[in-house]
């Protein structure tokens, strides 16, 4: 089975965005990978990284142009109460609430937010919510 190793977010300020996510979710930094262009953190069975704009050239990529969401990160919580608590904490840390915690049509419980850079993310409980 193929496993997702990393998901990366490009940002003009890797320290600000890395600190936001690590503070919100208590992520452990992979210090051996830290550089002026990158910071990475363990996130369950995979990792999340934050790349400076200079990493585009390093990777042979060009920044996407135009508006609209292209990626949506989802972070699982152990229960519905934690979804609500982390949603409140995210807003205190500078996130914008898009959709308050709600029960999805498939029975999960989640909120939708935007991080300080405007990237969309969800905080989610996969269990059945009454």
UniProtKB/TrEMBL annotation:
Keyword Oxidoreductase present in the record's keywords: the answer is yes
GO MF terms on file? dioxygenase activity
**Occurrences of domain VOC (ranges):** 3-126
A Pfam cross-reference name: Glyoxalase
Which residues are the signal sequence here? Answer: none
Q: Please provide the record's keywords in A-Z order.
A: Dioxygenase, Oxidoreductase
Asked if Oxidoreductase is a keyword of the record, the answer is yes
Protein's UniProt name: Glyoxalase
Per the UniProt entry, what species is this protein from, by scientific name? Acetobacter ghanensis
